């Protein structure tokens, strides 16, 4: 099939989208425009921002890092940009993506900081998870997610970042929305949407998601066409989590009923103002400071310290 926009010079399409087939150059342009429109519409980036990109070296984080830099250059925005990566300590997986990330940041001339679970919390995930699991039955992704969010927030704040830019794509957000509904975690809705976290509270760094409307397969194609150096293997724990089952279910639905994931996101966006209003009211009443580490917490002790406490007791 040929690109529907290249009428005079028929060019082979690289993807078929709902509105027609696109060749490489038209797809790259379409993809970048959508990301830039998302940034503009939701005001994800402002002139005085100090941006910290949460990077891992995978396709999403390389794409979001590259396009954030391109956006700043195209629109001549003087915001500063750096990358922060968390090394969870997942043998045979993370060290490879971090090699790619270091090269990528060097090429883009973006400063990179890497913080590891080992140095910040005392153990790599591979060692911490089985010990924590014995007492709490927590899956690797639960431990990983809590600690990674904790460290990203802590170090981004230490760097004076005004925003943390993440590579969450449309698939990630549709999955997270359904996960929250299935588990009745309605309070976590504040973490969803193109902008999450609360600007007024300096306890949590605000997160912005320029790839919010980009389906995963389009991010993958973009990274491939741009020839980013990327490992396409997945984390060895990825199949153990609840998210994996939701992902499979949504992929089956999307295949059978195209537009399902976009539909979930549209429904969420329609409800978002109400959900966020509720969440902010609750946050303002409830946010405390962890009595162990001094970071923001919903209880006396933050979730990261609770896991650490279980881990210390298991030694
Ligand atoms: S799949 Fe789970 S364990 Fe692996 S990096 Fe993601 S959250 Fe962490
Ligand atoms: Zn074309
Ligand atoms: Zn704490």
Please, how many helices? 11
Please tell me the total number of domains. Answer: 1
Average predicted local confidence, pLDDT:
90
Strand order of the largest sheet: 5-4-3-6-8-7
Strand content: 5-15%
Question: Any idea what the shape is?
Answer: globular
Find the CATH topology: Rossmann fold
* CATH architecture label: 3-Layer(aba) Sandwich
Sequence stretches where pLDDT stays below 50 over 5 or more residues: none
Rg, Cα atoms, Å: 20 Å
Question: Top keywords for this entry?
Answer:
315 residues, alpha/beta, Rossmann fold, six-stranded mixed sheet, 51% helix, binds iron/sulfur cluster, binds zinc ion
Describe what you observe in this structure.
The protein is an alpha/beta fold and 315 residues long. It has one domain: HUPs (Rossmann fold, 3-Layer(aba) Sandwich). 51% of the residues lie in helices and 12% in strands. It contains eleven helices and ten strands. It has a six-stranded mixed β-sheet, with helices on both faces. The chain has a two-stranded antiparallel ribbon with strand order 1-2. Helix 3 links the parallel strand 4 and strand 5. Helix 1 packs across helix 8, helix 2 crosses helix 8 and helix 7 packs across helix 10. The longest helix is centred in the C-terminal third of the chain and has 27 residues. The radius of gyration is 20 Å and the shape is globular. The protein starts with 14 loop residues before the first strand and ends with a helix. The model has no long low-confidence stretch (mean pLDDT 90). Bound molecules: iron/sulfur cluster and zinc ion (2 copies). The site of one zinc ion has 7 residues, from loops.
